[in-house]
Amino acid sequence: MAVVLVACALAACSPGALIGRDDVLKKASREKGVSNLDRHEAKLMLWDQFLQVSKVSANPSDKPPGKQRVWVVAEAGTIRVGSSGGRQHWAIFVYNAVTGSLIGFVPGPTDQEASAGSGSAQWPDYWEQFPDSS
């Protein structure tokens, strides 16, 4: 079971205007450890939908207020965001859809994990299961 790594505290805000898909894709492509992207996609959904599909465990305090949505961005390329320092084939970043704040990320498999058959090497195998309410 993956664990979402919390990157920052959420601002206490109510649902409001959402940042756009292009803006969140640009933001994700500039995250530390991300370079040479081959592919990136974003989907808008509720926090609980993200948790249900991804099967990550998270602190209740990570949840955005109320029914506020999150942008879930998957990126594939040269990515080094995990604690191992190794290269991941992909990563998923989760952003507060109102503030644009990074809530956390899920690192994909490293080269060693991918060669051992632990996880999809090219793209998150559960990506198509995520809903998109954008």
Structure, explained:
- This protein has 134 residues and is α+β, with helices and mostly antiparallel strands.
- The protein has one domain.
- It has helices at 21-29, 47-54, 111-115, and strands spanning 5-6, 34-46, 69-79, 88-96, 102-107.
- Strands 1-5-4-3-2 form a five-stranded antiparallel β-sheet.
- A hairpin with an 8-residue loop joins strand 3 and strand 4 (88-96).
- The longest helix has 9 residues, at 21-29.
- Residues 1-15 have low confidence and may be disordered.
What keywords describe this structure?
134 residues; 3 helices; alpha+beta; 5-stranded antiparallel beta sheet; globular; disordered N terminus
Question: How are the secondary structure elements laid out?
Answer:
Blueprint: E1 5-6, H1 21-29, E2 34-46, H2 47-54, E3 69-79, E4 88-96, E5 102-107, H3 111-115
Number of helices: 3
Report mean pLDDT, rounded to a whole number: 83
Q: Unreliable stretches, pLDDT < 50, 5 or more residues?
A: 1-15
Strand content: 25-35%
Strand order of the largest sheet: 1-5-4-3-2
Radius of gyration computed on alpha carbons: 14 Å
Q: Determine the N-to-C terminus distance.
A: 28 Å
Along the chain, the helix and strand elements come as EHEHEEEH
**Assembly state:** single chain
Shape: globular
What is the number of domains? 1
Helix content: 10-25%
Sheet/helix structural class: alpha+beta
How many individual β-strands? Answer: 5
User: How can the largest sheet be summarized?
Assistant: 5 strands, antiparallel
